[in-house]
């Protein structure tokens, strides 16, 4: 029991730069309080004391804002950052080294008894406000972006964003040394990265590229048919023009224009 508590406290130091002392983590982190209370309520539930387990889980929800059903199976080194609004259903299964942020729901989509909540593999990160619904499997190393809605299985090592959730990239498995270096350099907080691609823009850009290629090929075919003596009617097609979609990054709207932020210090002589 004490080894589990030590692991829960230690993972707070590894995943939250704001953590300073063990006493601070034990007394002020609602995610830690919810996990410790769940360990006890889960044990009571397994001993057949279902009502008492539910009462204890409700007390934990009252003080932490985190609702974890006593029946949920949670692995080691599980961390809930901030925590308010997190809901974890009865038949949820969570592997080791997983991280959830505030507003995450691991819920069901059916009123039938039996397995109706998600199963998470190891090292899964779910961003703030994300909803993972139904008896689906989330593979090891998956990253789910903030406010995503996931209702289908996610393969190992993928990143999911959007509503409904879309797979946007696969991450190669790093070895243990690379994992340690990545953790030292910075944790991928909220299940997102600065260079995460936009799946909608990527898909539309792919369609536009295909249309441009097809247009050029049709033009070449018409020219070839004309050179052989065939009569091909000229149809004025609207010019597609440059239709590429760009990702908005480090920009803000100012005076009805787009101004890029520059990584330079302001001029002290400037009035603004």
Tag the structure with descriptive keywords:
alpha/beta; 17 strands; elongated; disordered C terminus; five-stranded parallel β-sheet
Tell me about this structure.
There is one protein chain. Helix content is 34%, strand content 17%. By secondary structure, the protein is of the alpha/beta class. It folds into 2 domains: 2-191, UDP N-Acetylglucosamine Acyltransferase, domain 1; 198-237, no CATH class. It has a 6-stranded mixed beta sheet. A hairpin with a 4-residue loop joins strand 14 and strand 15 (166-170). Helix 3 (30-46) packs antiparallel against helix 4. The chain is elongated and about 90 Å long. It starts with a helix and ends in a 12-residue tail after the last strand.
CATH-level-4 superfamily name of the largest domain: Hexapeptide repeat proteins
Overall 3D shape: elongated
| Strand neighbour order, sheet with most strands | 3-6-9-12-14-15
Largest sheet: 6 strands, mixed
The radius of gyration is 26 Å
Break the fold down into its secondary structure elements and pairings.
Elements: H1 2-15, H2 22-28, H3 30-46, H4 50-64, E1 67-68, E2 73-74, E3 79-80, E4 87-88, E5 93-94, E6 99-100, E7 105-107, E8 119-120, E9 125-126, E10 131-133, E11 137-138, E12 143-144, E13 149-150, E14 158-161, E15 166-170, H5 176-185, H6 199-227, E16 251-254, E17 257-260
Parallel strand pairs: 1-4, 2-5, 3-6, 4-7, 5-8, 6-9, 7-10, 8-11, 9-12, 10-13, 12-14
Antiparallel strand pairs: 14-15, 16-17
């Amino acid at each position: 029991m004490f080894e589990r508590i030590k692991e829960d406290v230690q993972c707070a130091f590894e995943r939250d730069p704001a953590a300073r002392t063990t006493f601070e983590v034990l007394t002020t982190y609602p995610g830690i309080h919810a996990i410790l209370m769940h360990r006890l309520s889960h044990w009571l539930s397994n001993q057949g004391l279902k009502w008492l387990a539910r009462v204890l889980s409700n007390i934990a929800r009252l003080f932490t804002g985190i609702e974890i059903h006593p029946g949920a199976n949670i692995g080691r080194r599980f961390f809930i950052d901030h925590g308010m609004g997190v809901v974890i259903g009865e038949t949820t299964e969570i592997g080791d080294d997983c991280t959830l942020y505030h507003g995450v729901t691991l819920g069901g989509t059916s009123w039938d008894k039996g397995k109706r909540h998600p199963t998470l593999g190891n090292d899964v990160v779910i961003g703030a406000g994300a909803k993972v619904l139904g008896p689906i499997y989330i593979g090891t190393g998956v990253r789910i972006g903030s406010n995503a809605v996931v209702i289908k299985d996610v393969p190992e090592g993928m990143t999911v964003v959007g509503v409904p959730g879309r797979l946007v990239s696969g991450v190669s498995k790093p070895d243990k040394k690379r994992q340690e270096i990545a953790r030292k350099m910075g944790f991928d907080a909220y299940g997102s990265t600065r260079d995460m691609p936009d799946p909608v823009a990527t898909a539309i850009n792919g369609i536009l590229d295909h249309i441009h290629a097809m247009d050029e090929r049709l033009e070449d075919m018409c020219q070839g048919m004309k050179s052989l003596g065939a009569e091909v009617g000229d149809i004025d097609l609207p010019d597609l023009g440059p239709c590429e979609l760009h990702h908005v990054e480090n920009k803000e709207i100012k005076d009805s224009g787009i101004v890029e932020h520059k990584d330079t210090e302001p001029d002290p002589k400037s009035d603004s």
